[in-house]
């Protein structure tokens, strides 16, 4: 099970909610497991570590296609920050939008990655307190925190780690 998710038994009419066994087992069946993922607004340790690494780059310039260490684009910064904590991600935001677990906005936690625009053209790390840490253009613009409510439309939220 992924960190930040909770498995809850599915109850059916007449069910007591007990599976008749203590603990968890994998029977190997391909049918319904009787559980669903419920995501809580709880950060994963790896995501918090990646956020901490990313913010060391505050003030460095945005550069389209930048992969550091002197300038970054949005996805280059995300890839580098998570890579430093052992999570290997694809290079571009459109690919980064397809890995990890999709998280609902109600479960957003610091260290989660927010992908913006319908085309997944921008990406940043949620820092908590309504702030996103990101590298955004134009070229030369400093990497910074920005209020989520001033950011472009959200396509998806991803949790890595």
From TrEMBL:
PROSITE patterns: NLPC_P60
Region of interest (Disordered), residue spans: 1-31
Ranges of residues in domain NlpC/P60: 44-161
SUPFAM superfamilies linked to this entry: Cysteine proteinases (SSF54001)
Entry annotated with the keyword Protease: yes
Keyword Hydrolase appears in the UniProt entry: yes
Keywords (A to Z) from UniProt: Hydrolase, Protease, Thiol protease
Matching Pfam families: NLPC_P60
UniProt feature, compositional bias: Low complexity: 14-31
Source domain of life: Bacteria
PANTHER family: NLP_P60 DOMAIN-CONTAINING PROTEIN-RELATED, PEPTIDOGLYCAN DL-ENDOPEPTIDASE CWLO
Family of the protein in this entry: Belongs to the peptidase C40 family.
Protein's recorded name: NlpC/P60 domain-containing protein
Organism: Gordonia defluvii
Organism lineage string: Bacteria, Bacillati, Actinomycetota, Actinomycetes, Mycobacteriales
């Amino acid at each position: 099970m992924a960190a930040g998710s909770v498995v809850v038994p599915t109850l059916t009419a007449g069910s007591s909610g007990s599976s008749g066994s203590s603990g968890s087992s994998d029977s190997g069946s391909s049918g319904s497991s009787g559980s669903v993922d419920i995501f809580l607004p709880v950060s994963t340790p790896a995501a918090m570590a990646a956020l901490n690494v990313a913010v060391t780059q505050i003030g460095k310039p945005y550069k389209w296609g930048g992969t550091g260490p002197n300038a970054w684009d949005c996805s280059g910064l995300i890839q580098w920050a998570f890579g430093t904590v052992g999570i290997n991600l694809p290079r571009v935001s459109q690919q980064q939008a397809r890995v990890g677990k999709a998280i609902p906005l109600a479960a957003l936690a610091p260290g989660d990655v927010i992908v913006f625009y319908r085309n997944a053209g921008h990406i940043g790390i949620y820092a908590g307190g309504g702030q996103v840490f990101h590298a955004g253009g134009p070229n030369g613009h400093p990497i910074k925190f920005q209020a989520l409510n001033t950011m472009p439309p959200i396509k998806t939220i991803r949790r890595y780690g």
